[in-house]
Design a protein that fits this description.
alpha/beta, 5-stranded parallel β-sheet, 14 helices, Rossmann fold
Length: 335
């Protein structure tokens, strides 16, 4: 799998797949620019090496048709501001295509659509690890038609997650919060075979507890799964003490999803306390997923972690040992 350093970009048209899928307010303005700022280093690298950059991204879920509130105009304004580029300066050097998901062929991985996109560039760069679990045209299709590589952000995301999959420092602790218990059960099962302990948040545990059967009965090591001892919409004091002890003992920590209903400040205390405990530990720590990263950034505790990942579902799929279409298209698995 190739990297930026393997190419000469002078006077080349570079198709760059970014993830600029940021949360929006009711007026269509970004409420968290994290993904935009994380995209900047690769774009800056390409521009400084003489490339003409054609950016591709999606925004939201327009369902294969144009939705004006999901157009990328305001995102482009933010991006250009971070790059210190005016519209005039950008002319002929950088272009952002409109929301790829306005075309149903994007999510269908339509071959004709992928080929049409490929004709816009000489080289394809995937810098969107966060969508590389999607079998979409801009992720898995274009690489068939162009010389391809990963960008700086993709490389960094992958390197951090590989540390958990291949010989992590132990004890390795996984913390799994958020909701959608059914969607996360396969990840909890897979990560329990790698990690030494898996801590579950209250909302997730409550969903599992309501199940008619024991969801962990098929696990190889069900005792690795640590459930909350108390609390409702947040972890309680007994659980906080238990979870903090696990954090203090860990050498590697991966955390996805808040531990409570953090949209309400009164239920954010547990997640905030765990974040601060991680900051005091000496563990290599990664937090991932939009909801958790947004929470950590809004409470100014993002610096407590070794790395904040833009990836949610892609990180879970990778750590669970699934083959990611975006990685497969770039030859990561040896094909």
């Amino acid at each position: 799998m190739k990297r930026l350093q393997d190419f000469s970009f002078q006077d080349k048209r570079v198709l760059l797949r970014c993830d600029l899928n940021v949360p929006l307010d009711e007026k269509g303005n970004s409420t968290d620019d994290f993904r935009i700022t994380e995209a900047v280093p690769t774009i800056a690298y390409l521009l400084s090496h003489g490339a003409k950059v054609i950016l591709m991204s999606h925004l939201g879920d327009p369902g294969g048709k144009r939705v004006e509130s999901l157009a990328l105009g305001k995102v482009q304004e933010k991006l250009f501001a971070y790059l210190d580029y005016s519209q005039a300066k950008a002319k002929g050097k950088i272009l952002l295509l409109e929301n790829l998901r306005f075309h149903k062929e994007e999510e269908e991985n339509g071959k004709k659509f992928a080929k049409a996109l490929s004709k816009l560039g000489d080289i394809y760069i995937n810098d969107a690890f966060s969508v590389s679990h999607r079998n979409h045209a801009s992720v898995a299709g274009i690489a068939e038609f162009l010389p391809s590589a990963i960008g700086l952000l993709f490389e960094k995301e992958l390197a951090c997650l590989e540390r958990f999959r291949s010989n992590p420092q132990r004890p390795f602790l996984a913390i799994v919060g958020g909701k959608k218990a059914e969607n996360k059960l396969s990840f909890v099962k897979a990560i329990s075979e790698i990690a030494d302990s898996v801590l579950l948040g209250n909302l997730l545990s409550q969903e599992y507890a309501s199940s008619l059967t024991n969801p962990f009965s098929s696990f190889k090591n069900p005792l690795k799964v640590v459930l909350p001892l108390d609390g409702g919409f947040d972890i309680g004091p007994k659980t906080l003490t238990l979870f903090t002890r696990h954090v203090q003992e860990a050498k590697s920590i991966f955390w996805t999803g808040p531990l409570g209903q953090v949209e309400k400040e009164e239920y954010a205390k547990g997640s905030l306390a765990i974040a601060k405990a991680i900051g005091k530990s000496k563990a290599f720590s990664v937090a991932g997923g939009g909801d958790l990263v947004g929470f950590l950034r809004s409470h100014h505790v993002e610096d407590k972690f070794s790395y904040l990942s833009t990836a949610g579902g892609a990180a879970l799929a990778f750590l669970a040992g699934e083959k990611l279409p975006g990685l497969e298209a770039l030859g990561y698995y040896g094909n």
